Amino acid sequence: MSKIKAARWFGPRDVRLVEEPAPQPGPHDALIRVESVGVCGSDIHYYLEGRIGHAALTGPTILGHEYAGVVVAVGEKADPSLVGKRVAVEPGIPCLACRWCMSGHYNVCERMFFPGGPGCDGAMRELMTVDARFCFPVSATLSAAVSAMIEPAAVAVHTIELAALRPGDTVFIVGLGPIGLLTAQVARTGGASRIFGVDLLPGRVEFALEKGWVDAAWVAKPGGPDGGARETLSWLAEQTGGPGADACVDATNRPEGIWIAVRGCRPAGRCVLTGISGNDDDLVPVGFARRRELTLKWCRRFLNNYPGTIALIETGRLDVASLITHTFTLDEAPRAFELVAAYADGVLKASVDMP
User: Is the pTM of this model over 0.85?
Assistant: First the structure.
């Protein structure tokens, strides 16, 4: 295949199908026939604004980092046994040589190649090359679309890891989009006794309750000087008997999510900030956090979480398939981005599939 099709971003709300030369694998690479790409919330920041805070796209870019496909070839120094296998790909490729990589924190590598971000073409194309060491074979029972969902599921697994969840803990999740819903499920597998959630969209609250992934949930009503946050916290206080939850998670794309998650913590509680608002300088209620001696952690994607996440999905302990509400072809990729950006038609996860 000398030419491939790709969906390339050219500017805000401007994604076009183009034809480009097929990539060739380097010595350590796997060449992947991409089968499925999920549209992520961070993709939508780039789609609408061309940036996430200071991270700005500098030119036409192929978006997409949640992906899976079949390995069709490998470079001379890559594992030949991968050929012919469907793999879930951990998208961020660190340098593996800097002090952060060498100390075990490769997810904060400052020389990270992250597909679909500034200077790095992503996976919404027919063929993709990637360091073969970040390709994880999956069971034949997993579809390509489910395999692509391993990426956001790994974010949820790392979030609960950072929350230091203990059996019997209560958990409050702010934002019931795909990451929030996956985090609720992981919290349940980790022994949470009660899980509470909040979202602005009634359909997402209803879905979470129907699935049994949360025990109680609240539809936030935006408005007023605090965006409805105090009503949400009053509801949480009723649910928990006053003190707040043991562990809280911000899984939103709004600055208010941080404020609500921190203030939802009981004294000496833990809060993990996983959502991406798109800003560099969101406000954190520092005085409240200090008085309650909270532990605050920020989640940077995942860290050695792919094998465990795959095991949770393959054994049926984590349901990712239910979150895939819409599917599109590569030719229809612009529609997929627009649907997710508009929160239209009850969308949770839109999948762009290339069978």
Answer: yes
